[in-house]
Amino acid sequence: MARNWHKPLILLMWMALPFSAWVYWSAWDRLPARMAVHFDAAWQPNGYTSRDGATQLGLEILLVMLVLFTVAMLIIHTLKPTAFWPALAIAYLVVGVCTYANYSIVKFNLHGQQIRSGSLGEPCKSSSQFLVDLVPRRGLGDGTVPAVALSVHVDAASAASALRASSSRRSWN
Q: What is the largest CA-CA distance in the chain?
């Protein structure tokens, strides 16, 4: 039994998978149908997928990492036992980052990014909102095309003025 102490440590790493599945499952009813899953350097969402796609992608990436690290840990322990501890630390770090990424994606999509308005001092929902309007195009009959405008909202007053400007643009067509 003294030689098998590494197996429980490897098995413990697998607890990340049911934890991540529980994070998605516990928030499933509150998650939006279209979830942000990729972010740019300023931590603004720039990649979206469905709720099912986000869950599947997050859990599959974690599963692949767990399988790779489990096989690697067993091989390392057999061939070079002195390298087991550093390799296990790296495995736990990577699996921890993947688990935290799943948790953060769920948390972001549940609550949005909270920012502080300099003028009001209270948190506002989402520093950027995408306004999608269907705008009639002249000369193409009554067909419509989607027009996307990016508006940065700092407080409720600027959000209201952006909506007024958007509706006034539609009225002159």
A: 80
